[in-house]
Amino acid sequence: MSEDTHDYVFKVILAGESGVGKSSILRRYCQDRFNLDERFTVGIEFRTRTMQIDTSKIKAQIWDTAGNERFRALTPMYFRGAHGAILVYDITNHQSFRNIQYWLDTILDHTNLSGIVILLIGNKCDLDKIRTVPTDEARMYAEERGLIFLETSAKDSTNIEIAFNVLLKKIYKEERDKKNGTTVKKKFPCC
């Protein structure tokens, strides 16, 4: 198999409020780097990473969307065709968690509802001492909506690799099941 050949190409979007660490998560995952002075995303940024799942070569196209309110009219157009989404909030900023519902609704309005896998990430778990979003509250929110849930730290790399692996493996399984005609209906109640 040549370097340019992939069995699957999955589009994944990162969404959430400005300043929650979406760009830092993406940089940590794709380059294993962290920049404390990360600049805010203007519009959209895009990176790729290739991985192996079972015997399949997977290319993840990861789209980092701006969380700033002035870009909100633009970002939904990038959600179309997404196989997966990562909703990110800052565990030290309860407002960023409350706004997750806006991002979830926007994603569900602009993607194929039956075909998207969504991961909820509470980022900055290295700042647990100043946490304002209890883990149990976020976990319950995710469970009620059928979302995968993890807490991460882009700064110290906690669960970053695991988060993307869990998401991409779930997408892979669902895409493989679709090919085999064994698709299971998603749970996204109350959205």
According to DSSP, the number of beta strands is 6
Low-confidence parts lasting 5 or more residues at pLDDT below 50?
A: none
Rough shape?
Answer: globular
Radius of gyration, in angstroms, nearest whole number:
16 Å
The spatial strand order of the largest sheet comes to: 2-3-1-4-5-6
What is the count of DSSP helices, taking H or I runs of 4+ residues?
Answer: 5
Descriptors for this entry?
single chain, 191 residues, alpha/beta, 24% strand, globular, GTP-binding, Small_GTP-bd, GTP binding, Rab_GTPases_membrane_traffic
Overview of the molecule:
- The structure is a single chain.
- This protein is an alpha/beta fold.
- 30% of the residues lie in helices and 24% in strands.
- The protein has five helices and six strands; from the N terminus they run E-H-E-E-E-H-H-E-H-E-H.
- A six-stranded mixed sheet has the order 2-3-1-4-5-6, sandwiched between helices.
- The model has no long low-confidence stretch (mean pLDDT 86).
- Belongs to the small GTPase superfamily. Rab family.
- InterPro entries: P-loop_NTPase, Rab_GTPases_membrane_traffic, Sigma_54_int_dom_ATP-bd_1, Small_GTP-bd, Small_GTPase.
- Its main location: membrane.
Summarize the structure.
The protein contains five helices and six strands; from the N terminus they run βαβββααβαβα.
SSE diagram, text form:
Layout: E1 8-15, H1 22-31, E2 44-53, E3 56-65, E4 84-90, H2 94-98, H3 100-110, E5 117-123, H4 135-145, E6 148-151, H5 160-180
Parallel strand pairs: 1-3, 1-4, 4-5, 5-6
Antiparallel strand pairs: 2-3
Main location: membrane
Family: Belongs to the small GTPase superfamily. Rab family.
Membrane topology: Lipid-anchor
